Amino acid sequence: MPLGLSDNLFQRIVSALLLLPPVLWVTYEGGFWFSGLLALGGVLMMLEWCQLTGRHRAIEKVAGITLIVALLLLLEVGAAEVRFSHVLAALGVLAFLGILLVRAGVAVGWWLTGIAYVALPISSLWFLRSENGLLVLWVFLITWATDVGGYFAGKGIGGPKLAPKISPKKTWAGLWGGVVLSGLVSVIMHQIVPFVAGTLIVVLLSGVLAIWAQVGDLLESAVKRHFNVKDSGGLIPGHGGLLDRVDGLVFVAPAVASIVLLSICLGFEF
To answer: For a 10 Å CB count at each end of the chain, is N or C smaller?
Structure first.
């Protein structure tokens, strides 16, 4: 293995190098290309979620995919802020209902929760691209930096476990490694292409969002542990399924979109 890299780390690096250029190009182009990428991602994520949670009936997979694609089409009509605010509220209610059903032992709750789990980041990325494409890039960078910083700090430093019952390999050192690298790359990006009102906002938000990304990672780990599944799929070598790769983004994208929407509603400059 080159330079003594582990098989898993080498696969992670190769996968990232192969996926990064097309994702960045599509984000830059926007329009049909970006919406198409979001639709494809939504389809793959919903299929993986159904597989992960045991929702194997074709009708559930088709209905879930149809709803997510229809949501993207809906977002193409009307004022962006109005559309997204309504979508955000509706998906929030759907997620709440799904969680209540899951806690009550009603299996269909996993399907409803899955629709919200997939549609929230998809619609949030669409909204952020409609407002400022640099915010989409920032979401990607925070997610990747949190993952990379956490990986190397966790491997190199080790120490006390973050949540051993949910994800035995994650450490507190990994959490703070992700926070530090997320803040560093965010500040560098802001110095090259300013995308918010000030550097202090970038530093504060990047730290909070990095922690929030780790929460998303732990949540998906908890779901996989509940269903006794190691990976959500095998789509990406070294990363498992697409859900395994975007577990942090699933939480970060809606958070950033909500902050932007709130700043627009209140008349503040984000």
So the answer is: N
